[in-house]
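Re: that chain you flagged

S.,

Sorry for the slow reply, it's been a week of failed gels. I finally had a moment to sit down with the sequence you sent. For the record, here it is as I used it:
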Amino acid sequence: MRIKYPNITLFVASLVLAFVLSKAGVFEVLESLGGLGYLGAFVSGLIFPFTFAAPLAAASFFYLGQAINIWTLIAIGSAGALVSDLLISKFFKGGIFTELEDIWKKYENYEKRRHHFSHAHRPHLIQLFHTRPFHFLSLFLAVIVLFSPLPDEIGLEMLAYYHLKPRRLIILSIVSSAVAIWLAVNAGRLVLG
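Prediction finished late last night. Pasting the structure tokens below so you have them in one place:
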């Protein structure tokens, strides 16, 4: 049996699996990462870009910042996040957005056949999405998402659509992860004094 949209199916299945595992209490084991030192920093970095694990990774950085040198913590955590970001980017490159475009085209063709006419505003709307200002806005929003505490999956998916060069992705991933980890560690220092 061949799956028609394998990337979308895998993405949805991974979200469902993460939700089920979080409800089953599997992620509670990850809360102890704060006590594992440098290994905990790397593992926290590995899970930091993922939707359901990001709060746990941030909490472990929060506590690791009390015991480990902040710059070493940032370097090791960013290396872990880079590994995950590269895997996520490889997964999304030419995958999910291409499949979503196929679905959109099929829906558009279905609507045209159903109404026996073309809506005059739709081609203009589609052309809007292919303009330079829209591309710039999409790239800007992707970078903002990477630098925010939001999961990197969303920003990486947006960047994968534009076929960002691996070198630029690596630099962007390291810098954004370093900033996010620094924010988590300093939040921990402010709260815990």
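What I noticed first: The radius of gyration is 20 Å.

Talk soon,
D.
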